[in-house]
Design goal:
Elements: E1 3-7, E2 10-13, E3 16-18, H1 22-32, H2 46-53, E4 58-60, H3 67-82
Parallel strand pairs: 3-4
Antiparallel strand pairs: 1-2
């Protein structure tokens, strides 16, 4: 994972939240933007694969109630792995 200095001893990390159910994502897009038709290409899992290849943590967005602790854990794991 790449870290960017935020100055004053702070850092910024990237995480990709991934919705593995492409049909659900496409349905969400369609409900918000019905005039644009089927947007399955926009719901592609490609971003998650590219992020993982680049070492950016990828975290499933669902279940929503515990997404924040899972994001924090993923960042911490990634930080420890890259600190070596």
């Amino acid at each position: 994972m790449s870290r960017l200095s935020g100055g004053r001893g702070r850092w910024v990390a990237a995480v990709v939240l991934y919705g593995p159910d492409e049909a659900q994502i496409a349905a969400n897009h369609l409900s918000r933007e019905p005039g644009h038709g089927d947007q399955r290409a926009r719901a592609s899992a490609r971003l998650a694969a590219l992020a993982a290849e680049a070492g950016v943590p990828v975290v499933p967005a669902r279940p929503w109630p515990d997404v924040l602790p899972r994001v924090i854990a993923a960042v911490e794991r990634s930080s420890r792995a890259n600190a070596v």
